[in-house]
Amino acid sequence: MIIERPSYIDKLLAKRWNGKVKIITGLRRCGKSFLLSTLYKKRLLEDGVVEDQFIEIALDRKSGIQYRNPNLLFDYIIEKCEDISRKYYVFIDEIQLSFKVKNSDIDESTVPEEERDALYTTFYDVLNDLIARPNLDVYVTGSNSKMLSKDIVTNFRDRGSEIKVYPLSFAEYLSVTDLDKVDAFEEYITYGGMPLAVLENDESEKRKYLADLFTTVYFKDLVERYKIKDVEVLGALTDALCSAIGSLTNPNRLANTASSLIDKNVTRPTIQKFIGYLEDAYLFESAKRWDVKGRKYFDTIQKYYPTDVGLRNARLNFRQQERSHLMENIIYNELIRRGYSVDVGIVEITQTVEGVKHQSQYEIDFIVNMGNNKAYIQSALNVDTPEKKAQETMSLRNTGDFYRRIVIVDGNRKPWVDDGITYIGVIPFLLDDKVIV
Fold first, then answer.
1. In sequence order, what are the beta bridge partners of 141?
2. Pick from 64, 56, 54: which is nearest to 97 by CA?
3. Pick from 289, 323, 282: nearest CA to 305
4. For labelling, which of 58, 257, 263, 299 has a CA lying 20 to 30 Å from the CA of 135?
5. Bigger pLDDT: 178 vs 299
């Protein structure tokens, strides 16, 4: 079965022949390679591109290992597109596996110490050369944001265009299942949207596949890339982050939790470093804490959300299935997928009780922004009593502004409005990307 991903195809088509390298990033095994080399290629072939206009190199396969050398990669591509009158599509898969090569043509003694990077040829040099050629349209995939996303500005400036790919959204998952919406959501909240897990019918194999991804792919990549010696700490931190979804935390707390899990002292600097590694691998994303009325960030406290709830559940052996936290995680992932920037909101409220003023802080699960478009979103399993509704909406009713306020509840209820607040079931929210607009 082929899982179509039309939203990503549209993004790629919109960037075709824009003179920039298209950088497709995301978690390993989330479908980047399939998107580019199968789905996008199929669409281009349907549009009249012919097979010999494609130059494809997969650096994670044995047949492509030699091209991890950027000089050999460059020579191969140039040889393949000698006819400058023809247009070619260059697809390079897992570009982060390319290594740097010392340039023997440069006299090292003439290069200042602070400029020593110039002694090496990297894939950035290759890509910058290729995109300068008007008959080449260049696409790369990569799974390490440290080497790609965070370096786009400095290495490509305005010559790189990033497309982030995520595990299947609920809408994408629903398109390939025979289940009705409600039953499909029960599967999705348990097993998530990793494509091969979605396509696996055997439940035990599905669980095993998700659990094995950490040890056979993600941790292995991180250990090799960053020369990590204490894998036990990496595992303990991952477990702590998976357990803490929906909770504000900081490196000190995570260090204490990891220490207790493995009965070993873990330092704050180590935790901060390892968190960076996990985010660079797209396994987790973080949301900062924003003071709505004070209009400032709290630097030390954040929330961390696994990129896929199925991976999170498998890591914890499908224990700790707190529905409210999992639903919040899925909503966060959907907001990020739709292109919003997302913060956690804090509203400070002063109340007078028996003549004494008390200050209390109330949380807004998500403050979402896209340009001038802004909304406050609360995730709640239900608001089926006046007390519960008052509790869940206290922060929304005290923001001091007039931006849209939304409460997402469990289930399949269609949207309704009460006292200026929109309520909607999580299922219709996930299926309608215009809810916030």
1. 24
2. 64
3. 282
4. 58
5. 178
